Amino acid sequence: MSHSLKFTLSxxxxxxxxxxxxxxxxxxxxxxxxxxxxxxxxxxxRLENKGKxxxxxxx
Length: 59
Description:
Elements: H1 3-19, E1 27-29, E2 47-49
Antiparallel strand pairs: 1-2
InterPro entries: Ig-like_fold, PapD-like_sf, Pili_assmbl_chaperone_N
Keywords: Signal
Signal peptide: 1-25
């Protein structure tokens, strides 16, 4: 493997590690499927916070 390819791959891996963030698994989607009417613009989804602290969910 060439030196420039090793450097590029190392830079990509380092950038990915720096910009990765932790995720919270405290938010649960009620149900296993979301069924929506194709004629409607939106659908309501029920979310449940299983954690001890309040969390913000955005779309």
